Amino acid sequence: EQYDNSLIPGMYMNAEIEVATNNAFVIPNDGLVRFEGKEYVYLETRNKKYEMQEVTIQNNENGYTQITLADTNNVKNKTFVINGAYTLLMKMKNRSEEE
Questions:
Q1: Which pTM was predicted?
Q2: What residue spans of the chain are helical by DSSP H?
Q3: What does the pLDDT average to over 39-64?
Q4: Which of 10, 22, 54, 67: CA 20 to 30 A from 92?
């Protein structure tokens, strides 16, 4: 291998690094729930009506998580729940157990 003799170990330098960018769904960590070994988000389908959507976790940084949705067609014109998702999970699961 050939080394650049002008570089010395411990030396500082400036560099430009090219990275690829992709459009992605990113959600605050409070909008994610883990249930029965899988990750989910909640989508508001109608006024105060919600459904769980399974997701795959990609990256997590600074309180936000990049997700991949199993069904991207299912999210059109719907709102992600970004806060209190675990509270919603508990209310929905307790209600279904009572019925």
A1: 0.69
A2: 85-98
A3: 90
A4: 67
